[in-house]
Write a structure and sequence with these properties.
alpha+beta
Length: 114
């Protein structure tokens, strides 16, 4: 078994209206159900975290800019770490991710030990 990082991305839209409390509660339940299913299979290694929308970017020339996603239209919203037999299995697990219902995407990356 290998560990895989699932990175949740979606279009960055700073002017976007926030969902209603009811919709937000439904979205949270979808995430809990999906992650609970992964945990029930003993494949959830790290439940991850959501990421704040603001941050800083430190570049090679040591210049610090506001960001972190000034140059791209997608924002990373969070991540989890799962365990799977293969990249294909990790991608299949990702197909159930609730971010896909709001036109987001999941980047699947194998974690290589240092």
């Amino acid at each position: 078994m290998n560990d895989f990082l699932l990175i949740f991305r979606r279009d960055f839209n700073p002017g976007e209206n926030q969902p209603s409390p009811e919709k937000l509660q439904g979205m949270m339940k979808d995430w809990q159900d999906w992650m609970g299913g992964i945990a029930a299979q003993n494949k959830l290694v790290d439940p991850g975290n959501r990421l704040a929308g603001d941050g800083k970017v430190v570049r090679a020339d040591k210049v610090i800019t506001n960001g972190p996603y000034v140059e791209i239209k997608e924002a990373i919203g969070g991540y989890i770490v799962i365990r799977a037999e293969s990249m294909d299995e990790a991608a299949e697990i990702s197909k159930g991710c609730p971010i896909l219902t709001i036109k987001g995407n999941v980047e699947v990356r194998e974690i290589i030990a240092m």
